[in-house]
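Thread: Newbie trying to understand structure tokens

Hi all, I'm a second-year student working on a class project, and my supervisor (Dr. K.) asked me to get a predicted structure for one chain before our next meeting. I've only ever worked with sequences, so writing a 3D structure as a token string is new to me. If someone could post the tokens and maybe explain what I'm looking at, I'd be very grateful. Here's the chain:
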Amino acid sequence: MGETPLSGVALRRGTITLSRRAPQETMMRVATRYTTTHDWKDADGHVVRTETIPCVSNGRLERRIYQQAMRFLAP
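---
Reply by user tm_fold:
Sure, no problem. This is what the structure looks like when written as tokens:
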């Protein structure tokens, strides 16, 4: 958060959408959403609030899914 990286488990949700663009052309869209939880603590170290925070994807998973699909579909 800010300039401080968060650590912990990130949850991932994703969708793959295929749509027809032309008789022999299909568009594939890979979208993912990553989140993690962060515990806000008081001066004594007690958790006072837990918040779900969105994370930024670096695109590696999405790129791998796309590349695997292209290999599978290649003639």
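A couple of things are worth pointing out once you decode it. Residues 64 and 70 are 10 Å apart (CA to CA). The helical segments are 60-73. Feel free to ask follow-ups in this thread.
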